[in-house]
Design brief:
Elements (H helix, E strand, L loop, with lengths): L9 E6 L4 E8 L3 E9 L1 H5 L6 H23 L8 E7 L3 H18 L3 E5 H12 L7 E6 L4 E8 L2 E7 L5 H11 L6 H9 L24 H17 L5 H27 L3 E5 L6 H14 L2 E3 L3 H4 L3 H13 L20
Parallel strand pairs: 1-4, 4-5, 6-9, 9-10
Antiparallel strand pairs: 1-2, 2-3, 6-7, 7-8
Bound molecules: 5'-O-[(R)-(carboxyoxy)(hydroxy)phosphoryl]adenosine (KG4) and zinc ion.
The site of zinc ion (ZN) has 5 residues, from helix 4.
Amino acid sequence: MEKSITEDVLILAIESSCDETAASVVKNGREVLSNVISSQIALHTLYGGVVPELASRKHIEKINQVVESALLEAGVTLEEITAIGVTYGPGLVGALLVGVAEAKAIAYATKKPLIGVHHIEGHISANFIEHPELEPPFVCLIVSGGHTHLVIVKDYGEFEIIGRTRDDAAGEAFDKVARAVGLGYPGGPKIDKTAKEGNPHAIEFPRAKIEGSPYDFSFSGLKSAVLNYINHAAMTGEEIAVPDLVASFQNAVVESLVSRAVMAAKEYGYTKLAIAGGVASNSALRAGMAEACEKEGIDFYYPSPVFCTDNGAMIGAAAYYEYKKGIRHGWDLNAVPNLKLGER
Ligand code: KG4
Ligand code: ZN
């Protein structure tokens, strides 16, 4: 039985698209009653990156425990849940399948509606959790390990992608550069920390511009420039000042992200700009974005770090708005590794 629209809507949300097994209970899309995340970072650190097969196996091991903890922490029983939300793409197919199978089993057993959620829609929706006043339309920059998208959020669940990366995602560039300088995995947080001791203007790295596509990004040239710099130093026996190197790299990434996002808000006429995804917790990006938005009279929104990297709460927030739109999935819901944003 579905609840009437006047009652509170409690979503049990599951996320397992990459290396985090996560579940959360979210009330009315914006109030997080629990947010349980079992990270696989320690496991994948051994290999310098996510190993898909190991990720799937770890999800299977953890998923029941994570869901049970989420319900327990929220003080909510399965019977009290309104609907089950789950990430069904994009992501690693084996990893996604674990969450999708879990969500379908729970929804089937409890006779609750099942709502498949796009992972990026989840990241964007993370902004709703701590900003009750934030409503579409607004511009959102999504920067994670797998995605770099500049999107106009026209309405809940309605998007227009105006820019994307042509090669590496921003987080991927952070991870690759961190590995090259020996900072380890995942690189983003390590570069963020190390860059605080460096000079962001020490080395002038290139900022790519794509002819005819002012909102697209490219980070592979920048990454190659950093690798060339390291190789050149190794050949000539020069010592590298790692903090200066990573601060200069980070500055180049931040400048290309901030300039395009702010330009989009101005040219499309939006006064609200949000950021989302793992890289949105980067301190230099937050500072650069806050400064540029302040200058242009744009309201700037960003989630707390725990809601930037993969989590269940953001999926619960997105699932709530999908639920309100009447979106329901059947028992044939499957993992879609290359799901497009806005596709259902
Ligand atoms: O959103 P997320 O958890 O997973 C994906 O959907 O990809 O993002 C993970 C990415 C990784 O590449 C990680 O290095 C990056 O986010 N990241 C950061 C920071 N924290 C996480 N990048 C830069 N600065 C950070 N503080
Ligand atoms: Zn993500």
